[in-house]
Amino acid sequence: MEQVIAIQHLNKSFGQHEVLKDINFSVYKGEVVCIIGSSGSGKSTLLRCVNLLEKPTGGQIIYQAKNILDDNHNLTAYRTKLGMVFQQFNLFNNHTVLGNCTIGQMQVLKRTKAEAEEIAMHYLKVVGMENYIHARPRQLSGGQKQRVAIARALSMEPDVMLFDEPTSALDPEMVGEVLKVMKELAESGLTMLVVTHEMGFAKEVADRVVFMDKGVIAEEGNPEQIFNTPIQERTREFLKRTLEKG
Ligand SMILES: Nc1ncnc2c1ncn2[C@@H]1O[C@H](COP(=O)(O)OP(=O)(O)OP(=O)(O)O)[C@@H](O)[C@H]1O
What we know:
Layout: E1 3-14, E2 17-28, E3 32-37, H1 43-50, E4 58-63, E5 66-67, H2 75-80, E6 82-85, H3 97-107, H4 113-126, H5 142-155, E7 160-164, H6 172-187, E8 192-195, H7 199-205, E9 208-213, E10 216-221, H8 223-228, H9 233-245
Parallel strand pairs: 3-8, 3-9, 6-7, 7-8
Antiparallel strand pairs: 1-2, 1-4, 4-5, 9-10
């Protein structure tokens, strides 16, 4: 299996507070990895370190056989290969749906407007938003905004999509439409790293589940193993608490 990203001995501290401790895991091509764990366990910080929105305090991020944390490596090139989907969509309100999906392509990838629009249209169809290309984000529901944000990230044709709790900011009735799109993307073979509180999604869609607790990876395995036969007591406790909440 081809490795897309390998995280090795990653640490992150904010002042004296050690938030990530010796994190090691890899993401392979075509794989869906879900990161689960309690609030404050470090899931978002880990994703933000992978995307370099936070600077790791130590360790390595290996991409194409190079440690991208080495100063001399091209960080911009690496970041354009990651598609990021945030909790809060982060769309530009002064641009249309189509504009949101073409700006990055034109500015960063230097695609022409025509090329960028053709690619954006393709991915807007994938997420079922092709009939809203002239709308502004404020005219859309949360679920629609998140689908546009997914299309925008896909339009950059990244090697891996990173999702940071993509349904946490949505009204409950809109969670399903976003998870459905994500499931279809997973089935199409996209490589995905997903921080999520949606245990149903992790159980059904993930190839591998990483359980984080207090800044460490406490356990990882396939969904069957993590959800049905967890080895660690803290995994069992977390699942019991979370699944009881509903
Ligand atoms: N910029 C920051 N400065 C200081 N502390 C931070 C910062 N970002 C995160 N932290 C701390 O790091 C810890 C882990 O936070 P993180 O958001 O990664 O957890 P999480 O598992 O994603 O939680 P949640 O599920 O609630 O989003 C928390 O204790 C948090 O307060």
